[in-house]
Design brief:
With 243 residues, this protein is mostly beta strands. Helices cover 0% and strands 42% of the residues.
């Protein structure tokens, strides 16, 4: 494709496959992938995800949560290496059976689980991993979203977002600790500008409590110094409860 300096373009192809590599031969570029979802009669959702810089590809990726109970959620990954590999998915400390991937192969998996954190790890060479979620309003699939995993070698103690809105939207900030993440008994949840601490049992998890029962006081976010596992912000519009 020929283009001039400073030009921005979009392309589409009649293909459903992966992985995808976008490369320029004359200098740096920036790339994203935009998806619009059609429920069969109308376009109902729009999602865009930034491309992973090629020099940041690694063997393992993190996600703070996985929900394939209330949502339809896939974990997607592709083998970027030069040799076949096995990929292990760990959710809430439980390792799932390995998935073999040949060179250049892309696949997706789903599990009947609502838990976290999630680690996707390759035995041989670099991979890329994302999580795709589709939401059903009770009768139809209405929403689609996809997010790339955080490369494990880039996990850090602090993360930024440019904005937070839990007034016109239903917004969660989700995060997990790297240290002892498989056995940690604490889950932290921040909403409406405050921090809260919750026991780690499923019966007391904030996702399972009505909004009015969720405590608004707890350990200050700034005092939690342990290394974060991954951090994600999730928004939904006019839903009755958190998923």
């Amino acid at each position: 494709m020929n283009w001039t300096s400073g030009q921005s373009v979009n392309v589409s192809y009649p293909i459903s496959s992966g992985p995808v590599k976008i490369q320029n031969t004359t200098g740096n570029i920036i790339a994203s992938q935009r998806v619009a979802y059609n429920n069969g009669t109308a376009w109902t959702s729009f999602s865009e995800v930034m491309g992973l810089p090629a020099n940041q590809a690694t063997t393992a990726y993190y996600f703070p949560w996985y929900n394939n109970v209330d949502l339809n959620t896939q974990i997607r990954f592709a083998n970027l290496g030069s040799t076949p590999a096995n990929v292990w998915v760990t959710i809430g400390g439980v390792v799932q059976p390995p998935i073999p991937l040949s060179v250049g192969e892309s696949t997706r998996v789903s599990y009947p689980i609502n838990n976290g954190p999630v680690k996707v790890e390759s035995s041989m060479g670099n991979i890329i991993a994302s999580m795709r979620a589709a939401y059903k309003d009770g009768s139809a699939w209405t929403n689609f979203s996809e997010v790339l995993g955080v490369p494990a070698n880039q996990a850090t103690a602090a993360y930024y977002f440019p904005w937070y809105n839990n007034t016109g939207l239903n917004t969660q900030i989700r995060f997990r600790q790297c240290q002892r993440c498989a056995y940690d008994s604490l889950d932290y949840h921040r909403w409406c500008g405050s921090s809260a601490r919750y026991p780690g049992s499923r019966s007391e998890h904030p996702d399972k409590l009505p909004h009015q029962q969720r405590p608004s006081q707890g350990r200050e976010f700034g005092r939690e110094h342990r290394r974060l596992h991954a951090c994600g912000l999730q928004q939904r519009y006019r839903l009755d409860r958190f998923l």
